[in-house]
Specification:
single chain, alpha/beta, Rossmann fold, Zinc Finger, Delta Prime, domain 3, 15 helices, binds zinc ion
């Protein structure tokens, strides 16, 4: 059974490929984080090596070992977390290639899954190209990414590209309530906060620390609105140093701000029923009273511009300082 929920198009494609035996030697699973890409990659590795009629069965010894990360023919290549450069290295790709040149130990296919394929170093990506250009029998490579634009176009063009987009909010809400027993108010809030990324919504339902982190970030945002210039600058410098360690964390914080300002704009324009931060409705209403629509549109524009500049590697401290000072 394919365990990815809600990505019918991608799942049907994979199912048909496995059933007909006609599939690419390399895939690119692309889409925002938490949309089921790694689950689909593991399921595909299971299906390619499963002995049952209904592949993947999730129950045979082979399927279970793939799920547990213990199948000798299925390897997930990840960032080496101790490596301060935070890239998938050329050595990792070379090791993969020498492993791929041997026949499968026990299964039908060797499957190599690159989690965060966008983190391949330039050299590693060029080395990988060789394998993508000269496919080996019984070897399937799956590149998984949520930042496709960071991949070499030559790598992308040699893979079958499978898009895993966010799901409609209403679908996430329904799945949370029906399949995961979420109370209606949790299902409503988490589906909106998830931006359609079901995996995130499920994690947040099961692990309240994600909502606690969000709450503390909202606290920071509210505090900064009334903070002095010195305090705002010191917060900007703190964010900039966090950006150096985890880009994703700062992206998440800015996304939260974007949605907060957007909610304020919705409230101001009389569309409070469309807000995302359902649990902060009264605070939003109160704040919206003291802000004009031009102020809010400008704040949103400044945030988007800051996001673009960070993406283009403009000095993060400078970008974040300007942003903090311009906040109404
Ligand atoms: Zn199986």
């Amino acid at each position: 059974m394919w365990q990815v929920i809600g990505q019918q198009k991608a799942v049907m494609l994979m199912d048909r490929s496995v059933k007909t035996g006609q599939f690419a030697h390399a895939f690119l699973f692309t889409g925002p984080p938490h949309t089921g890409k790694m689950t689909l990659a593991r399921n595909l590795a299971q299906a390619l090596n499963c002995g049952s009629d209904n592949r993947p069965c999730n129950e045979c010894s082979s399927c279970r070992r793939v799920a547990a990360g213990k199948h000798p023919d299925v390897q997930v290549l990840q960032l080496n977390l101790e490596d301060r450069k935070k890239v998938i290295t050329i050595e990792q790709v070379e090791n993969m290639q020498s492993n791929a040149s041997l026949p499968p130990y026990e299964g039908k296919y060797k499957v190599f899954i690159f989690e965060d394929a966008d983190k391949l170093s330039h050299d590693a990506a060029n080395r990988l190209l060789k394998t993508l250009e000269e496919p080996m029998p019984q070897v399937v490579i799956i590149l998984v990414t949520s930042r496709e634009s960071d991949l070499l176009p030559t790598v992308i063009s040699r893979c079958q590209r499978i898009e895993m987009p966010p799901l409609p909010i209403a679908v996430v809400e329904e799945i949370l309530a029906d399949k995961y027993g979420a109370p209606p108010e949790d299902a409503a809030l988490l589906s909106r906060l998830s931006r359609g990324r079901l995996g995130w919504a499920i994690s947040a339902l099961q692990d309240r620390s994600l909502l606690e982190t969000r709450q503390s970030r909202i606290g920071d945002l509210l505090e900064m609105r009334s903070a002095s210039i010195t305090k705002r600058l010191s917060y900007a410098s703190d964010l900039a140093s966090r950006f150096g360690k985890s880009r994703e964390e700062v992206d998440d914080i800015m996304e939260l701000w974007l949605r907060w300002w957007n909610d304020l704009l919705l409230v101001s324009a009389g569309n409070a029923d469309r807000i995302v931060n359902l649990d902060h409705e009264s605070e939003l209403a109160e704040q919206a009273q003291n802000l004009t629509i031009p102020q809010l549109t400008r704040a949103l524009r400044d945030l988007q511009e800051a996001g673009r500049q960070l993406e283009q590697n403009v000095n993060p401290r400078l970008v974040l300082e300007v942003l903090m000072l311009s906040m109404p």
